Task: structure prediction
Amino acid sequence: MNNYPIGNTSKVPVIQTTAGDWEQERFSRKQNFVEAMSVMLIILCALWLVAYPFGVIMKIQPFNVIVNLTLVLGGAYLLFVAPILHKDTTQSWGLGNPIQYWHLITTGPTIKRRIILIVSLIVFIGLNIVNFQQWRHVARFFQFQVLARTFGLSVDVYQLPQQFPGVIFVFVFGVFISALIAFGAIRYDNFHTAFRTAMIIALPLLLVIFISAYIQRGRDAFQNLSFSRWALGVFGYIFWGFVQQLLFSSYFGTRFRKAFAPSNQPNNKITGEQHIKKSLMFGLWGAVVAIAFTCISISIAYGTDAIPSVAIWIQLILWITVFFFPMGFLYGYFYCKDKKRMLVATLSASCFGMIHIDSYGLVAVTWILGIVLVYVFMEEKNRNLVALGFIHGLLGSTFGEMFSKESAGVLNVDYSVGPWNVEEPTWKVLIIPVIVILIYVSILIAYLKKAPEAKI
Result:
């Protein structure tokens, strides 16, 4: 329930989150949960019950326009309206702000102030350099060519750096975006602890991706890997990851962690020898479920002859085990530390996963990654969106290099998602999205009927 703990001098009510931290919050747990679930249901229904049947299959263009407009307005609500309504702070979303930045470089130990100032200036200059050197990618990301056509302009936006006054636009845009990120969006006060956590998470998972690719294809997996292309992809994907996590870890993570109080039940934690046993069991079940899911999916998508020999089946099973056993083990390890927190993270991360329908390989990977990100994001010391964006960028770009190319064969993961990217639109594609929608509706109804938080 919203209250004022000892030491709180703010007039804004606060609420204790699943991880035990106190945060500003204007509304009740029930309102946070209902809002988050409703937003997710609106997104899925707009995409799969409106855009897909009417816009994609029946090709009625106005429905596509309506859905896209709905999503744009919804995104504006998530980013600009919801934080104000709930009295969220920028820190609760893992963001910095100009006032906080000014405070950090004008108060406190001299060495700390100088480090933050130097780092922020390096980031600012670096982003401007990248903006010029990689303008084609920047323009494509912000859809400048589409915007130019919309306003009746015949200019080739990709050639602006080589033209005058186009180069001025590129310079001004770069300065604006770079300043916004370097002096506003980045949260510097906890970056060192959040980035350390990011490294602890990202580096082992990066190794798992490389080992899995090697098991599947041997040295051929790295034959066409270009370091410069990979590094550029990581950098670009960090920015894209930042945007995605702003919508998912920040919005959904904040709403869900405020929707559930921390558990005070003694059986919420498993310790000692049982902790390791449970973790190993989760790892085993994770591998078994992944093996069954992957083999069935390959048989449906490519036919039973897609894997021609027993040796290749064994190799595939080994790949899946190496990839998913560590994921299951980690899930079990943190589940034993705090069951309720892990379940809340799982539900919240499902929103990140399900938005990637109907690339179900990507659904599985992003759901798993989302659980990790939401779990660590619950704690104030790790709540830094740039650090999360780094994890997203490093792992997302690497996984794309290894498993979104044709060389990955039957394990190729399609990075194109949503109703407009279904290659062969048929009505049966709706089966899984409808099941997911029904599951979310069932969870919402069950919460409203039984959860203690629903009374608040």
